[in-house]
Each structure stands twice: as structure tokens, then as C-alpha cells.
Write a structure and sequence with these properties.
The mean pLDDT is 83. This protein has one helix and eight strands; from the N terminus they run αββββββββ. Helices cover 11% and strands 38% of the residues. It has a domain at 53-156. The chain has 157 residues and is mainly beta. The chain is elongated, with a radius of gyration of 33 Å. Strand 7 (142-147) and strand 8 form a beta hairpin.
Length: 157
């Protein structure tokens, strides 16, 4: 019975400690939040598929293109993008895409290939890739897009 009385007493004291005493002054604080302006500096990193000056020391090989298509963005100005899917000869090969300016007849002769270190021993398995390549914006005219000597598609502006 003593334990019961002790537990009830402790319970009542605990409830009393949790209640607000109107005699105690309640402190209020006002916190002013200042707006903060965050400026993010965009640094455009060139795509990994663009040829590099150091590529001259690497071995050049073919890239197998399985699919390709042209799409157009819905912005102003409209940009042309090339969607590519294919395989590289090994996991050690890196994709390279050379996109020249159109020639006088409106041909965009894109070259797609791979590069690798000449002395690296690598597993002889294909490495799949998919890439979206921004070809850019063009002045009015008709254009043919070529990949490694074959026509992919055409567009008019």
C-alpha cells in the first residue's frame, strides 16, 4: 500500500510540474528574419564527348552507332539536338563527337569515334552509351546532318 501512495504522490507532483503557473511571467521574444539572397554562379562545363587537345596521344577507334534521331527544343531560339545510342569497343574507350560548322551546302558532317590509352589492357566487352548532343542554333536555311558519312536527318529553319 505504501508503494501505491508513493506512486500516486509522485504522479500528482509530476502533473503539477507540467501545468502553467499564471503567477510566473512568460517571456516572449521576437525574432526578425532577414531575407537572404543567394546567387549561384553557373559554370558551364563542356560536355565530356568534345574532342580534347590531349586526344592526339590516344588511340582512335570506331564507335558503333545503333540509333540516332534529331529533335528540336521548344525555346527561343529553337535548338537542334542529336540523340545517339550505341556502343564503344571496350569500357576503357571514351566517346568523342566532333561537330563542325555547316559547309556551304548546309551539310553538318558530324564525326563520332572513341579514344583510349594505347597501352591499357582492358576487358574486351562492349560499353553501351546514350548521349544527347546539342548541335546548336542555325541561321535560315536547309541542313543535312551526317554521322560518319551517313545521313541522319535534315531540318529547315
Amino acid at each position: 500500500m505504501k508503494k501505491f501512495i508513493l506512486l500516486v504522490t509522485l504522479f500528482i507532483l509530476g502533473l503539477n510540474a507540467c501545468t502553467n503557473n499564471p503567477e510566473q511571467a512568460q517571456a516572449t521574444a521576437t525574432i526578425a528574419i532577414e531575407p537572404t539572397i543567394v546567387v549561384l554562379k553557373e559554370t558551364s562545363t563542356p560536355p565530356a564527348y568534345l574532342p580534347l587537345s590531349s586526344d592526339s596521344q590516344l588511340t582512335k577507334a570506331k564507335a558503333m552507332i545503333d540509333s540516332s534521331s534529331l529533335i528540336f527544343t521548344t525555346g527561343d531560339p529553337v535548338q537542334v539536338e542529336l540523340i545517339l545510342g550505341g556502343h564503344l569497343p571496350t569500357p576503357c574507350h571514351e566517346l568523342r563527337i566532333h561537330i563542325p560548322e555547316p559547309d556551304g551546302e548546309g551539310n553538318i558532317m558530324t564525326e563520332i569515334y572513341s579514344v583510349t590509352e594505347p597501352e591499357v589492357v582492358c576487358a574486351q566487352v562492349l560499353r553501351a552509351f546514350t548521349e544527347t548532343v546539342v548541335l546548336g542554333t542555325y541561321p535560315r536555311g536547309s541542313y543535312l546532318v551526317w554521322i560518319n558519312g551517313g545521313v541522319v536527318g535534315n531540318f529547315d529553319f
